[in-house]
What does this fold into?
Amino acid sequence: MSQTMTESVALGVLGISVPAGSHLCVFFRGTSGLEDIVLPFLAEGIRANDRCLCILESRVPSDVLSGLARQVDVGPPAATGQLELATPPEAYLRSGRFSTEDMLGYWADEAAATRSSANFSLTRATGEMPSVLNQPAGRAEFFRYEARLNEVIATYPQVILCLYDLERFGAEVLMDALRTHPMVVVDGMVHDNPYYVEPGKFLAGRN
It folds into this structure.
């Protein structure tokens, strides 16, 4: 059965639930803060029989898998493709560079596969901004992607958590993260984001 866009999705983190079609930024500090979010988020997805995608730079897939194995049985999900762990070069930079159009196409294809699948009704994904993009041109392109993702994700059977380490990124990155996500998770609570800027307005200000 397909999941409706109004149905609540448990994130597995501190009792937080959000509607399907949500795009959130999550602020944390360091490796332990990352694991406190990512591992229960993926574990909850495995238990709910969601398709689970994880794209991290600061933790290699084998470390994520071993940490996750302490919470759920990861063998069947990894074997069947329910759980997919990747690095930024394998996901964001597959063509050798970051492309907004490529990434929006990736999520559209993922949504179409989820809709047509008898196995999964929802895709939950989480990922970090690649550090190779932490320079002016790279940041500009990445946040064009983050802004435009809001125009399409509300109609997709997906929940996407975008991860930002307060110890890795400066104020410019963190403010753009706030401007491009309608909801933010900070200090274990989800908030409607007062700093969010509608995609058209955000992108117009970047031309």
Q: What stands out?
A: The longest helix spans residues 30-47. The first strand starts at residue 8 and ends at 10. The CA atoms of residues 46 and 73 lie 9 Å apart.
